[in-house]
């Protein structure tokens, strides 16, 4: 059994295709582990493998996938970590989940998350926090914390998450796995329960870079049901680079300087990885992203503003919770939303509503959208001189449960290094670069829009050289 | 910076029936976050166009052709109080 669990998803798919293992056997091995898990990583687990109707020969070989709770899955609870959607079973399935199933990756289970993807610790779930498999007294990161913990602990071969301002990359970093945020528009958002529509993107959380490439290959593409989705230029290539010859890496001083609050252990791992990159043939030079330090402020106006509009749909009428249905309409709305939403979601709805309210719109939301333009321009200019921009993924390693939950600003500062790329709509990947005091550290590479194949290749070369061993988290 | 009256006004706009304790906390927490965010108002942004879409897409249009939608009973299965083949809604009230 343990042999199966130690295979990467790509390796498992290969063994299935070679008929060395049966897909039902692999599914059951993971199903049993997911079901028995004590990390609270899952909110729902399938009770049986799907009928073996030939997906063995499909590209993903029948290797099952765990999916963040906020992806709608027909007839299966899809609650986005919120009490307001408790028990909700949607009548349709998100496009990316359908695409993965068609490519041979059936649904293993739904993973726990911060409510409506708002959070960096997974402590904002109505279904309780997720524990980090490296140290159960610590958070797995968020908001895709259940997906990250499940993959790191070997409860799932691979998983889907979503990234609005770091929600794939940061938990991947804190759990010692790979997480990729695709270019905005690369993957369909149809069937993703919305947080901030101009930022939300689906993407893979996997054990290695090759698995991430494989999931991405089968999820990108234009979807007529999402008008912001785009045809991906070319097929995602499976990574194979052995070196980084000729690759120019830029290190943004504004993010990696004193203002980023980067912990010493994270900085050491980052610098060791830069040295390794140079040994592989890359050049490493400082670069400028002048407006990047303001990204967090712009993000915490834009994302809550969009959230306040998106979450207006929870009105106790069409689906979800209803409280005080015997009162008048406004009372029913206000009581339902008061009872159904958690503290962080209310905080963001309040912030967003304020930023959009009469008299404040230009000063806050309007200014933030101008800053966003400048941030995207800074990246465009940087990419004229550099192939990729690199930073640590998160300024810190996994922190203690409860240590930041009462200080929203301290929690938001976790996203300092991840948010600029989200605002610019570009792609970025986090790979494990080592351990600091026994906890994983993430290394982030960001590339221009639609550079995913090149980005994966560079990440792969680094991954081979780093040789990170995550097996102890699966024990 | 955000006083109690402002918090209550925004909560009314957002249809949140916050408790007294939450109003107090919101006022402190949101003020702290807004103080941090305020810094972007000092940036020189004269003439900078606001972002409307990050990736260069002009129009995304499709043919306007009717298609069958999900059956009514499937949609109503998720409603908290379906009523006469529709969504049950309380009276808007006197307010």
Main features:
heterodimer, A: 475 residues, alpha/beta, Amidase signature (AS) enzymes, eleven-stranded mixed sheet, 16 helices, 11 strands, 36% helix, globular, B: 95 residues, mainly alpha, Histone, subunit A, two-stranded antiparallel ribbon, flat
Largest sheet of chain B: 2 strands, antiparallel
The CATH architecture of the domain at 2-247 and 452-474 in chain A would be Alpha-Beta Complex
Beta-strand segment tally of chain A: 11
- Over all CA atoms, what is the radius of gyration of chain A? 21 Å
Helix and strand content put the structural class of chain B at mainly alpha
Please summarize what this structure is.
The complex is a heterodimer of chains A (475) and B (95). Chain A has helices spanning 2-5, 9-17, 23-36, 95-102, 145-152, 169-175, 209-217, 253-256, 264-279, 295-310, 329-340, 343-356, 362-385, 408-412, 419-424, 452-466; strands spanning 42-45, 65-68, 107-111, 158-163, 178-181, 201-206, 248-252, 283-287, 388-392, 427-436, 439-447.
Please, could you describe this protein's structure?
The complex is a heterodimer of chains A (475) and B (95). Chain A is an alpha/beta fold and 475 residues long. Chain A has a domain at 2-247 and 452-474: Amidase signature (AS) enzymes (Alpha-Beta Complex). Chain A contains 16 helices and eleven strands. Chain B is mainly alpha-helical and 95 residues long. Chain B has helices at residues 4-13, 20-37, 72-76; strands spanning 82-83, 86-87. Chain B has a two-stranded antiparallel ribbon. Chain B is flat and about 50 Å long. The model of chain B has no long low-confidence stretch (mean pLDDT 91). Chains A and B meet through helix 10, helix 11, helix 12, helix 13 and helix 14 of A and helix 1 and helix 2 of B.
